[in-house]
Specification:
By secondary structure, the protein is an alpha+beta fold. The protein has helices at residues 28-56, 70-75, 79-110, 116-124, 131-141, 150-162, 312-337, 341-349, 354-365, 367-382, 386-391, 403-412, 418-448, and strands spanning 179-183, 186-189, 198-203, 228-234, 258-263, 266-272, 278-281, 289-292. Helix 1 (28-56) runs antiparallel to helix 13 (418-448).
Amino acid sequence: MTSTMTEGAAPPVPSVSKKRKSVTGTRKTIAVGFLLPALVLLGALVVYPIGFSVYRSFFDKSGGTFAGLDNYVEIFTDDTILTAVKNNVIWVIVAPVVATALGLIFAVLTERVRWGTAFKMVVFMPMAISMLASGIIFRLVYEQDPERGIANAVWVGVHDTFAESAGFPKAHPLPVHPLKPAGGGAFITKTPVHAGTAVSLPLVGVAPAKMPSAAKPAKAAAPGDGTVNGTAWLDFTPGGGGKPNVIDPKELGLRGIKVEAVKAGKVVASTTAGDDGTFSLPASADGAQLRLPEANFREPYNGVEWLGPNLVTPAIIGSYLWMWAGFAMVLIAAGLAGMPRELLEAARVDGASEWQVFRRITVPLLAPVLAVVMVTLMINVLKIFDLVFIIAPGSSQDDANVLALQLYRSSFGTDADLGVGSAIAVLLLLLVIPVMLFNVRRMRKETRR
């Protein structure tokens, strides 16, 4: 019998069915059946609203007349909407970049400290707070009154440390008092004073709550031998019963008020009143007029108007960074954990400084993670609404306006125009699409590696 196979020939390959199966072995009909509910929901909640918004954007306010591109023209001609577009540009450029930079710095530095985990937890904690609650918190933080807003409390405290603040902004004399206006908010005695006599400098107009806490009951100054002594006090008795130009037992001294002796327009001596309002000037004050300079009566420094027209957008961005810097830090820290440490050590062995290691090795290796964080935050800030709506007061809401807020105001405000609102929604969609496409393209590149 003759062999049909030659020696060393390869064994026959079994035929492969042309019909390919899925990886899981699931039939297409079953897969479609499971996907159908999700596709229906996607169409009802995403595709249909987008299509209807595009359709509605070409009609007028009532929806019965075709308006063409009029609604889109209004977006770029209305001053309020243009402000929203400008602010959105500021948000997209500033907020993601700063949040990512802070997250990178926090992630790198916390690797070098023992309590890095605790620090990360504290920084990430604001992510557990809703935008609504965060807006309420920062609305209080940015309050103008330093007694209520922590931002101005700190700012005023620092300012008052390096600059003298006025103590009696609304104090003034009565016509029966021996003082008269001297121009510029200052007051001066009606007649010159002389050594050896006690001088009275009474004022009114200071609320008891605004008096210095260390102020004591006023005390009549004793005539000095060769000096000009006197008392500056609040000539007001709580509950009534006091007499003008007379130091009554319940009246307090104007602690810390500055007194100057002026001759021929020049200050020859000056002093500050004590806790009980008494003061003493040297003999050079003899024959001079005593002046209470305007510095005593200036309005106190009340800090920065954080929610005013000029600073409201940076202030709201600050509250956003408080919430989302922790998100960026956690993602970047995860990227750092997977970074090959031998590259860093090799660079240090070759003599690279820590800054060079960070700039030339750490950051390039983290570029994919940084891109993810940046893109995510960009999409997030394009639809920012809650913080602006809650933090910005009515007087400056137009200055802090963003597209998502303007979409709400145009669609559901007192003068609602669904045509303009739909056009703003389409504009937001068009702004988000390039960022999403960039993210999809980047993800595809990552999967090919």
